[in-house]
Design a protein that fits this description.
By secondary structure, this protein is of the alpha+beta class. Strands 1-2-3-4-5 form a five-stranded mixed sheet. The termini are far apart. It is built from five helices and five strands, in the order E-H-H-E-E-E-H-E-H-H. The protein is globular and about 40 Å long. Bound molecules: coenzyme A. Coenzyme A binds next to strand 4, helix 3 and helix 4.
């Protein structure tokens, strides 16, 4: 692999980002929506193998003490090679004094435990589609 990291949104194929997130079952928004979401995020990280986009993630943050991670995904054929770790390490490092929250998709909790994330006892969410999120195992 010839890895390259990018920390801005220049030249990103939002169609590709949308397709990766859709195939991972993580989001089903238009490419334009994802473009807006990443552009409005404090931290973005895109990982390329040569010119091929193979993974990404982003964080919302006040830049001071609170941050939230979203949309961490790695192409299936590149999973298990340390790419997700690069993405999360980079995001965590971007706001060293921040509390960072996220909600892992069910089955991926162990991935975040590797970075010392711990399950929250009082996490609450107001989802736009509460029934879907309940069915997917995110809420009680
Ligand atoms: C979850 C995901 C981002 C992990 O990325 P990855 O590149 O495969 O992970 P890495 O190779 O960097 O793994 C880092 C460590 O986490 C572990 N790990 C990876 N996925 C894991 C999982 N689902 N559960 C537990 N541990 C996991 C690895 O074994 C590795 O451990 P090690 O450091 O002891 O060797 C990736 O599998 C993915 O994109 N999945 C589909 C999308 C998704 O579900 N994203 C998460 C949304 S919350």
């Amino acid at each position: 692999m010839n890895l390259r990291l990018q920390t801005d949104t220049a030249g990103i194929s939002w169609e590709f980002v949308a397709s990766i997130l859709r195939e991972a079952g993580m989001a089903n928004f238009s490419p334009e929506c994802h473009k807006q979401a990443f552009e409005n995020s404090q931290t973005v990280i895109f990982v390329f193998d040569c010119e091929k986009l193979i993974g990404f993630g982003r964080a919302l943050s006040d830049g001071t003490y609170q941050s939230a991670i979203y949309d961490v995904a790695v192409l299936p054929e590149y999973q298990g090679k340390g790419i997700g770790k690069i993405i999360v390490d980079k995001i965590v490092g971007s706001c060293p004094d921040c509390n960072i929250i996220l909600y892992a998709s069910p089955g991926n909790e162990g991935f975040y435990e590797k970075f010392n994330f711990r399950r929250m006892k009082t996490g609450m969410a107001l989802f736009t589609d509460p029934g879907k999120m309940k069915n997917r195992g995110f809420t009680e």
